[in-house]
Amino acid sequence: MELSFIIEKFILITVIFLVSLGIAAYSTLAERKIAGYLQDRVGPNRAGPGGMFQPLADGLKMFMKEEIIPADANRFLFIAGPSLALLTACIGSAVIPWGQDMVIGDRIIPLQVTDINVGILYIFGVVSLGVYGLMIGGWASNNKFSLMGAIRAASQNISYEIPMGLSIIALLLVTNTLSLKEISEMQHGGNWNILYQPLGFLIFMVCSFAETNRTPFDLPECETELVGGYHTEYSGFKMGAFMFAEYLNMFVASAVMSTLYFGGYNYPGMDYVNGLVGPIIGPLIGMAVLFAKVFAFIFFFMWVRWTVPRFRYDQLMNLGWKVLIPLAIANIVITGIWITIYDKL
Amino acid sequence: MSISLFYLIAFLSIFFSVMVIFSKNPIHSVLYLIITFFTFTIHYILLNAQFLAIVNFIVYMGAIMVLFLFLLMLLNLNEDSEPMKSNLLKIAGVIAGMSLLITLVGSLKSLHISDPVILQTQDLGLVKNLGKVLFSEFLLPFEVSSILLLVAMVGAVLLAKKDTKRI
Question: What is the predicted pLDDT for the residue at A50?
Fold first, then answer.
């Protein structure tokens, strides 16, 4: 392993990490601005021009607050919960291809941290691991509302993982690969997977809402029933870690949806632009396009949050088990039949 | 490097499995079990079986252990509510454990450890190769085990269903 390789990866990982933290921080501002807009009010506008420094002020406030650990709480697990939530939210972005390979001189630099050949499954695994943070945190706070929130988070996560996995299987039938890099390359030239898998995308998107605990699936932190859900007992930065993890998850989920179904870094007229600006700027434009798609999805997440009310718990379970799973299985069967007929022709 | 890494991971797996048994709190036991499964995942990666590693990660760590943890939280067991076990049970447990240990050691002794199995193809663990082998060479066992899972699923639904009319 040469030194330049390590430096290259180190820079890439640092940049991705900082960018995702920045996006998560500014998502909080965007959320409040969009909520304000949808409810016909201004939103935060005091800190800096147009409220631009609001996330910094929020962060400072979180650091300054007193850290309270309840008397009967399990101290180690109480701290481990939010840390785990933040950790699993951060490692998901490792397999997402952010752009085409950059060519500087005779070096080829892939804009992806690692291209493991089970990329989709890795993301799936990280998502399924994400619930541990909420469960451990909720249980360790020794509060019945936190425990209820933790149990809800677990059962919701388990229920919606199944249709999510099934919709990915239908996608795999189309793409024939598990590597996210190859899936992105395959969608070159307007050949986006959403055209082949509209139903699969719908199921995947609904499940991403549930896995990231966003409204209308935010039952684990339902404040009308459970005070604050799994983070009732948390204060200061540990509370902030849970919130940050939610926004990071949203960012990763948006990036995954853009990569799997909406062409990733591909855009119409890509080859022409690449020929015009060369192999260094070209991939960066692709990266910007991917980020535009990600921001569109993040906006959609927020739009839904301030439009659709929360489900009841039995409605949530009915939707997961009785609607989404049969639909996902039907999608697999239809895709299989379609591919067989298409191959015969 | 690979060998020393293996010994480190193997030590961690054994250490955390022992911790599963010795921790008093059932929730802690489950958490140690999750870490044990994680070390198994690393073992699979060291064996170049990426697919098996990630499936172990998803199924055992991500699904089964979440269910375990879920159940334990629902029951909310702790040291106070645990009933005292009688001495007879303890003695029976020790005897059963000892016999299991002797059986395991005996079977290990009869294994030929000196001639290890060498993989013919290094990339057998990758998805494509594994799929080909599963759906050609081992098709019948694969289908039979899937039917077994289906039977278990239907059975679980039947057991969980409340019978509205009493017999």
Answer: 77
